[in-house]
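Collaborator request log, item 7. Partner lab (contact: R.S.) asked for a structural prediction of Coenzyme A biosynthesis bifunctional protein CoaBC to inform their binding assays.
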Amino acid sequence: TRADALPYDLSGVRMVISAGGTREALDPVRYLGNHSSGKQGYALARAASQRGARVTLVSGATSDPGEPASVEIVHVDSAREMQSEMTTRAADADVVIMAAAVADFRPTAVAGAKIKKGDDGPSPIHLDTNPDILAGLVADRAQGRIPRSTVIVGFAAETGDADGGVLDHGRAKLRRKGCDLLVVNAVGGGKAFGTEDNTGWLLTADGRETGLPFGSKTLMASRILDEVAALVPDGQV
Ligand code: CTP
Ligand code: CA
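Returned to partner:
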């Protein structure tokens, strides 16, 4: 099996990984964005490449995560650009990982010129819902537009709330998204965004749940890739 062949257990596996945050334009100089640093997705790309995978990184906005060697990097801004790149590239991938923080909404209209302050005060920003890239990839696979054997991985950053704990939200999201593996990060209280360390669970569609002890994003990446390697069908490459 692959696990016996470490450290090159992902030799020849074609992997497409999204990372960073999307930016949704308001006008030529402004956007709606988020605090994603891109560090987890970049750490995954670096670790996968070191284990022999052929990696393409589709990167939104990041805060200097350092460019991994031997990885093809495609830069995108908006969720719709990211969707287009991910969908095209997933068609010949063995593994697709959505580590990006995709904006759920985008401004309905993008002003062609810089919005001026004017005399009347601010006007409201109207929003449309962005496409769900991950759910779209799962649907594409079900409809045969990407190979049935492609392993699809999602991420979820969750806090507990009145409806349930982090793990409850993670389980519900795994079912809703229909991916094979969901990486659930516990966030809030300064955890995860922009920090060096993560904590959480790996949930698989077949019901396995593995705790991720507190550790670096590099360590987290290697734990995630162990699980991915186990999901890639033998003889795939
Ligand atoms: N995702 C995506 N496209 C979107 C939103 C999210 O592909 N428009 C992906 C993320 O990259 C991540 C997973 O879906 O892998 C879960 O993202 P998350 O924001 O936690 O889920 P949502 O479905 O947007 O639910 P909510 O934000 O309401 O919790
Ligand atoms: Ca979201």
